[in-house]
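#structure-requests
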Amino acid sequence: MTVLCIECSSQLGSVAVLHGGELIHTAEFESPRGRGSHLFAHLKSALQHAGPLDAVVVGTGPGGYNGLRVSISAAWGIARARNVRLAGVSSLLGYEVPDYFVAGDARAGQWFLAHVQQGTFLSPPQLHSPEDLRKLFQPGEPVFSTGKLVGFPEAIVRPPSAAVLARRDVLPGHPAPFYLKPPHITKPVFSPGHRIKNP
């Protein structure tokens, strides 16, 4: 079985190809705010190494909005064009350590924390205040983050790996981005009797 995996939830993306469970190709690339064009050059190279595919797996976040949308769309397009299975997996499972935490800044004074054991969530990502976050860490287990965390110098700054995600249990159905919070939409405010002029 040959699997292509794409992971672009952070500013350092990666692609990987596994054949029979063995890694035959991998590459990392910068993906600032998900707008980097490097993904497609590396996808082209990965597909050349892969040959016929059996499945496409993509990291679903949490992470940057643009990176997730682009990578999921690319995965969907490749899977559809080649008529192979498409699946998603949380990007937080992309670390090759048996037991660990993943923490990150969820903005607006909130942080998220997830606890992973043996490739599955012992505790799924949940929002916390920075003060409460530290109380939840287990001594001796590493804490990963995709960026520096102010006040948490012990956090290991490292992006998730497509090569690791390709070996995880995947989610059935069409992959969708995982968001920690609902989308923030500012609705226009109109006063009573206000008229919208035609352009």
